[in-house]
Every structure is written in structure tokens, then in C-alpha cells.
Amino acid sequence: MGKKVKKESEPPSKDVFDPLPIESKKAATVVLMLNSPEEEVLVKACEAIHKFAEKGDENRSSLLGLGAVEPLSHLISHEDKLVRRNAFMALGVMAANSDVKRLLKKLDAIPSIIRKLSPEEDVVVHEFATLCLASLSVDFSCKVQISDQEGLEPLIQLLSSPDPDVKKNSVETICNLVQDLPSRVAVRELNGIPPLLELLRSEFPVIQQLSLRTLVIVTTDTDTRATFREEQGFDRLLEFLCNKEFSDLHVEALQVLSNCLEDRDSLQLIHETGGLQRLLQFITTPTLLDIQTNAVKAISRVAQSSENRKLLHEQDIERSLVELLSLEGDSLRTATCQAVAAMSLHLASKDAFRDLDGIRAVVQLLGSEGGEVREAAAQALSSLTSSNQLNSYAVYEAEGDEGLVQQLHDVIPGAVAHAAAVLTNMAEQEVLRCSILSHGAMAALLEPLQSADTHTLVRATQALAALACDAEGRTWIKYLNAGGLVPLVQLLRSNHKEVRRNACWAISVCANDEPTAVEMCKLGALDLLQEINSSANRRNKFSEIALQRLLDSNLSLKYSLTNTLAPTDITVDGFYDPGQVELCVTSFSALTSLSLSLSLSKAVPLSLVVAAAVQPLSAVMGGAVEVDRQHDFLWELHLSELRYELQSNIIPIGQIRKGTYYHRALLYKVLADRIGVSCSLVRGEYNRVWNEVLLSVGTPHYPGCQPQPRAHLVDLIHQPGRLLRANTPQAKQYQTI
Q1: Would the CA dihedral through 121, 127, 129, 130 be positive or negative?
Q2: Tens digit of pLDDT for each residue in 140-157?
């Protein structure tokens, strides 16, 4: 027998290491394993990191510090499917940490993540890749990068994924992206509306809510709203709103509806399908406060067009809104007042609110503790009283004027502006205006006139002008003199066109009070108005009127600037001519007996121009002077002597014994004003000054009628008493020789 030989096994290769199961409780060790070339090690390391990161943000920060993020950002593109999946699971959880997000952005990980959203990828990869993007997309620069890398299209496709987590993460990312306008448009162009609507039927409320939030944003775009209609969005929305199980989400659904109702076509469609009645039910049926509030906001959106307001009026919306005014809740009251303001643009609605005693209900809200309620209440009253005296009187009967004056001290600019607007509307009626003034409105306007808010300034200046429009109002301007004129005059410097225009209007009204006009001149109003009127871009009709009113209060300055005093410009004691040569002041105590004798001709208007009256005036000033002998009439020497004698450049006109054109014309104007003769004073070139009077001379065209009055110049120096018809060669010669 042969010897039995035992078969021996082949020795192991020298290059192969025996399998070694590794267990580690140290995160640092596991992070090091992420750099292993072995797939099995990578799978287990990623899985361990995922579990560790899930335990809290502190663990995520620890992993970040150990350097786990960078290798994970590479492993999500690993060729092994299992490694890739586990790496995404780890990175998806870690991306919730703000520092991790910053590092991923720095590592430019977004393109790699987006590439893994393709349909052939594992659903778990989809879940955690979208989780990463949901975390990253809250950052503006990441939003831009996701959009630039065309990440929106695969995200929209994943809205139809069978996995709810993928849906949730995808719609959350889209909701973040559409905060920017380009992404909103892209959602529509990429046909994203149908899958968003389909998510409303999800069994998970969080997915429904995110879908609604996204729709709230994208439906602010007009074209998207058209797509929403075409895709039966209203049917889906009304189906959702009619389901009481979704009542917690009705607020967002109503916001979507509110956006869509801005379009006429949408309103007509929802009206035809019964949606408007459903919306009104949300208003009238006691339910959650937020739901009622958003339903009212939807009504406000609907009421932005005149046709919609008419349709809502036919539904008796005013009654429902008045009932809501009595309910508790600042947000509801604010929204209701805003809806009242919108509906009050419809004339019939103004009357309806008054008949339903809605104005009194709104007035009561002026005393609310909530600033937004006070602002909205004043806004509603502003709309209700605009061009409606009956409603203004209803506010007065509800004692609203006192509350509105108090609201001028409010800390909320909008509340002040709307209150001032209501007071402006009410001030059109004298009884109401007097009541408003009696509550200290003029003093209360001092603070708004110094506001930094443009709208407040516009309304405050309008109110000031409305309240100071008559003698009663001007008696209260003393409060402005106490400090309010400074900010009012400074508003002339405003670069805001409407503020500047209304400031000019207010100044023109206040200038009817002479002391106030003088004070405004001292504050520089004249210089500012001249500057405004010299600019083609800044000038307006009120700036011209304001300048004229201020000049009317200071005729000396008016004459210096305009070279003209009209017949309505009546000179008084203290008027002077600030001419280029000297200043001549009219001191009536210094006038000669000529003024006394001329005053006797008061009842005979033509007597002042008739030669018997003019010649004595001429004689006082040195008598007649022939044209070719004017160089011998040494009036300059005489005035120099008077200046030396008086030690002043201001010369009482009654002391002048040699006067030329402008001395005589000035004296004539002064005397004419004293006896009631209509007379103007006009300065031309070369010290030529003349008076113009309107006289009815000649034969009337029809028996029993007075001749047409015509302008005549009065010769006071060459042939005293001669009348020269204006615009004739003789008159032009007198003006220039």
C-alpha cells in the first residue's frame, strides 16, 4: 500500500491583510476612516457619522471641528452606490448646522448635490440631497447658486416623488428659492404649478403648508395667476377651504386666494363658482381669528378695482364689515378698517357705512391701544370723508374730531398722516373747522410739520392750509408763530415735489395774516420762494402764489423786487422805496399840507388827476420841469443836503422840495391810496417811475352807459395833470425820456 499523503492548504498571500472588525467610540477615529480607500469602511463610517449627527447640533459642530465635512462632500459623488447614499445621509443631517452650511458653500458643494437629483438615483439620496438644499437655500448666495446650476427643474420633478420626505424637502427648498423674483417666474415656466396644487391633497400637513406658502409667493406674479386659473387652481383651493379638517391651514389658503383675486378674470371665475360666497362665509361665521382676518384681507384685495367694489356692494359687504368692527382682536380690526377704506372708494359704499352707523364704530377705534388699529381706523375715516360732507359731519357727531387732533401726537407716522387727512376733509365745513381748531389742532400740527416721514409732511401741510383758510383759522396761527413757522419754511427746501408744493400752499394761506407773513419773511421764506420760482423744475403755481402773498405783506420789498405796486397794494405809514439812489419813507406826520388839501377831494375820484390837484403836488416837488431843461433841475444836490441834515439815508418824503419822477410818483401813489383812488406805481429804467390810473373818458358806445375804463399815465413833472393814454407814443416817451 502506498503511503497516504495529507493535502496541505496553500499559504495566504503576503499582500493580503486578514479581515479586521473595527469598533470605535471616538468620533475622531471615525472621521479618519472617511479617508479610507475601502468601500466597506466608508459605508460604516458614514453610517456612524449620520447616527452621531442626528443626536444634536453640538455633535454636528464637533464633527465639523474634526474635519468631517470636506471628505463627506467628496463621498457624495463616490462611484459606490451605498457609500454615496450613506454620505448623503450624514451630510444631509449635518447641513442643518449654520457653520456646516457656510463651509459647504465655501467648498462649492451645491453643483455636486444637484447632480444627484437625477431620476436614476436612489430615493434615499434624493431625500438627503434635498434636505441639504433645504438647509442651504435659506442663504441668499446659495439660492442664487442653486438657480444658476438649474437646480429648480429637478426639484419640481421631485414634487411628484412617491417618498413624502423627498416631497417635503423639495417643496421647502422651492419655497425658499421663490423669495427671489426670477425663481417665481421660473416655477411657472417649468410647469411647477400643477405639482404644487397636487400637494394640497397630501396626507401630511407640513407638505400642504409648504405648498401653500410657495403658492402665496408665486401668485404675486400676474402671469402665474393666469396659469393658476388655467390649471383649475381655484377648484383645488376651494376644495381645500371647504374641508374643515384643514382649518389650521386655511389662513395660507386665503392668502393665495387673496393674491389671485386682484385679477378681474379671477374674481369673475370665483364668483361664478360660488367661491365669493364661501369667502363671505369665512367673514361672517365665527371661526379662528386668523382665518377671519385673512378673509377680510382677501376682501381688501378684491376691492382694489372699481368693478370689484360694485360687485361686493351688491353682496352687502358693508354690513358684514361693520359687524366685524365690534369684534375683539387687533389684527381683525386692522384688516376690517383697511377693507372699509378700500370699499369707501365706491360712492354707494360711503353712504352705506354711514347708514349702518359704521362711521361711529370706526371713530371708537381711534382710542385703541394698538397702534396699527389706530392707523387703520384713521385710514378708513380718510377714505370715508373724502369728498363727502355728510360723512365728515358724521365723524363730528361721533366726536371724532377731538380724537383725530389727539392722534396728531401719535408715534406712528401713518396714524398721524391719516388723521391729518381726515381733518383736512372735515375742515371744508366752517362748523367742523371751528370745532377742530377749538381742540388745539393748530398747536398739534407743530410736531407733524417736523416729521421725517414724507407722507406725514404732505398731510400736515394740507391740514394747516385747510384750517388757516379764514379769519377764524388765522387767529390760531399764533401757535405757529411759537415755533411752527421754522419747520414750515424749511420744508421749502424739500426735494420731494409734493411736500414742497404743499408747503408753498400752506405758506400762501398763512401769509394772509400779516404778522405771520412778516415772521416768515424774517425766516427766509422770500429767498427760498424766489429760488424755487427761478427753477423750471421746482416752480409750481403755489410757489408763485406764496411769493405774491408774502410780498403783499411787505410792499416795500415787493416794490423793490417787482418794480410794481398794483392798485390793490395800499401803502401805509412806514412804506419806503428802497431804490438804487436813496430810500424814501412815507411818514405821514411829515407830509405837507398838500396831503390834507388833497384828502378833501376824496368823493371826486377824477379830481386827483383833473390839473388843479396835480399841480400843487408838482409844485411841492419843485414844479414843472421842461424836458430839455432837466439837467438844470438839481434834485440830487437837494437830496444830498437832506441826507447830511438828517444824518440818514432815509428821507421823509414830505421834506423833499426837489423831486424827480420816482419821488413824485411815490407821493402820488401814497396820497391816492389815502383818498381811495385806484392807482398803480410802476418803475421802469433810468429812474423812470410813473402812475397808472383807470379812467372812463370819451363818449360811451351806448346811451346811458359809462365809457370803457382805460389805463392812463399821469404826467407829474413836465405838464402836471396831463393824462397820457397807456401804450401810446406820448406815454412811451414819458416812460423813457
Answers
A1: positive
A2: 999 999 999 999 999 999
